[in-house]
């Protein structure tokens, strides 16, 4: 049995649950959930002579596969209950319970559990470190992510103060959605960003806690997502003259661009779920997490200075680029293409440029923006990881080789060079080795691009190249 060091024990005292993402040299992924049931105050343990397994038992650390063996629910929000002389994790979807030690359930199903050991490290000040058994099959399992499960559903809880408040109810009074697909389409059709954020939080909570009828992607009546999600007029036209922004590398403009993260996580679920009924629940767990992150990023970026200090530039007032929209439209025909272009080209590019952006905020003494950007950057690594995970999953199903397939998708679905310099370390963490992206050029022609875009007239309203009349006068500080 092989073990992988995942953390110091002290680090695990910050939360009681953590999601672990492991990847093997062969590019296989496993998502595990770690439950720590002891409280920090219980820390009276007799280590003398106890084995590493005993220490793990004393600290009540249990690890199991993060998806339920019944129908694949995310177990990160399972209830933990004492049952006779055992402790069980109760799945939020259908309430099957699984023994945390053995994985056994009264239903006859069995969850996959992993042994845990706690050892002191004599070469590192005798710090206690936690080790988890690696999955069978695959070599050199690595820990890609150790993410605390927030009890608040978004950590830190985003604020909404800079985004206008809206009236319509979060849950529509007539025909409220009952499946994840219905929520996805409703959220895509919601024009106001505040309501989008509130509905996203609500829908993800319902999904995680088993309060939806189903995911709904296998249903023949699954709703279709809109080709162009609607926006309120005030968010459709920028209110700052492009001339005023031109040449101004202001931090406010950068934050505005960041706040403009779109809703591609909802779109990928709604657009491709029904055409890929074999997508497992773990796909929807990953992308609902991404949807929640996207709404968190909007709030974070829209809520920190200099936005707070420059009330004349609220969200929606400044020009934003439309390249993500274009790429999402161009890839609307193919899940493989969408994963490659949006998640492994655009989002991976974010990994390259974010550190430089963070540095600029740091040099400007803007600690709040640095803090927000660091959260966003860490989340983006997990988004590219999800892109890589599901791209390789799809390639395996289709019997094609991932690197060559990715390069072909970029050749036909992208224009120009995939630009560096590259953040090799963070790309590698996300599964993207240089073989994926080095010396890679998209060869999609103008005509082909226009064909793929089809009748997407709405793009024009968001394009920087379209001059729009300023609706309000905006004064910039000279030295932002
Ligand atoms: S009991 Fe977990 S998905 Fe049904």
Automatic annotation (TrEMBL):
Region: Disordered, residue numbers: 215-234
Protein name, entry field: Rieske domain-containing protein
Entry-linked InterPro entries: DUF455, Ferritin-like_SF, Rieske_2Fe-2S, Rieske_2Fe-2S_sf, Sol_Rieske_ferrdox_dom
Organism phylogeny: Eukaryota, Fungi, Dikarya, Basidiomycota, Agaricomycotina
Molecular function as annotated in GO: 2 iron, 2 sulfur cluster binding; metal ion binding
Keywords attached to this entry: 2Fe-2S, Iron, Iron-sulfur, Metal-binding
Stretches assigned to the Rieske domain: 55-132
SUPFAM superfamilies tied to this protein: Ferritin-like (SSF47240), ISP domain (SSF50022)
Biological source species: Mycena rosella (Pink bonnet)
């Amino acid at each position: 049995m092989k073990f992988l060091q995942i953390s110091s024990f002290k680090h695990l005292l910050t939360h009681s649950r953590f999601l672990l993402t492991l990847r093997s040299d062969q590019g296989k992924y496993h998502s595990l959930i770690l439950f720590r049931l002891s409280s920090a105050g219980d820390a009276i343990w007799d280590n003398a002579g106890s084995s590493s397994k005993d220490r793990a038992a004393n600290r009540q650390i249990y690890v199991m596969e993060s998806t339920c063996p019944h129908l694949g629910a995310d177990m990160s929000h399972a209830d933990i209950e004492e049952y006779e002389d055992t402790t069980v994790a109760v799945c939020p979807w259908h309430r099957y319970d699984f023994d945390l030690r053995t994985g056994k359930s009264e239903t006859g199903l069995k969850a996959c559990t992993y042994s845990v050991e706690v050892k002191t490290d004599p070469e590192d000040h005798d710090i206690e470190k936690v080790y988890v058994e690696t999955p069978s099959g695959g070599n050199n399992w690595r820990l890609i992510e150790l993410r605390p499960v927030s009890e608040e559903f978004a950590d830190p809880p985003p604020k909404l103060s800079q985004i206008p408040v809206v009236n319509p109810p979060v849950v529509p009074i007539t025909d409220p959605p009952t499946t994840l697909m219905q929520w996805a389409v409703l959220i895509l059709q919601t024009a106001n960003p505040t309501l989008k954020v509130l509905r996203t939080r609500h829908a993800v909570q319902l999904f995680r806690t088993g309060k939806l009828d189903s995911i709904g992607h296998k249903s023949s009546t699954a709703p279709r997502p809109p080709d162009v999600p609607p926006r309120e007029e005030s968010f459709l036209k920028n209110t700052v003259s492009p001339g005023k922004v031109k040449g101004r590398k202001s931090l406010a403009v950068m934050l505005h661009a960041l706040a403009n993260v779109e809703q591609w996580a909802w779109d990928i679920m709604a657009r491709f779920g029904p055409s890929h009924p074999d997508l497992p629940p773990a796909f929807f767990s990953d992308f609902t997490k991404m949807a929640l992150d996207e709404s968190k990023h909007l709030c974070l970026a829209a809520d920190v200075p200099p936005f707070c200090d420059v009330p004349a530039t609220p969200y929606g007032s400044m020009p934003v680029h439309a390249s993500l929209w274009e790429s999402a439209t161009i890839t609307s025909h193919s899940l493989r293409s969408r994963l490659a272009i949006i998640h492994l080209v655009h989002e991976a590019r974010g990994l390259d440029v974010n550190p430089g952006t963070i540095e600029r905020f740091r040099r400007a003494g803007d600690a709040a923006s640095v803090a927000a950007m660091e959260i966003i950057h860490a989340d983006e690594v997990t988004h590219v990881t999800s892109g890589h995970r599901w791209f390789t999953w799809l390639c395996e199903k289709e019997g094609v080789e991932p690197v060559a397939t990715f390069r072909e998708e970029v050749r036909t679905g992208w224009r120009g060079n995939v630009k560096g310099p590259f953040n090799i370390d963070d790309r590698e963490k996300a599964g993207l080795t240089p073989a994926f992206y080095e010396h890679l050029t998209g060869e999609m022609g103008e005509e082909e691009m226009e064909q793929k875009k089809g009748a997407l007239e709405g793009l024009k309203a968001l394009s920087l190249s379209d001059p729009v009349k300023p609706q309000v006068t905006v004064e910039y500080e000279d030295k932002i």
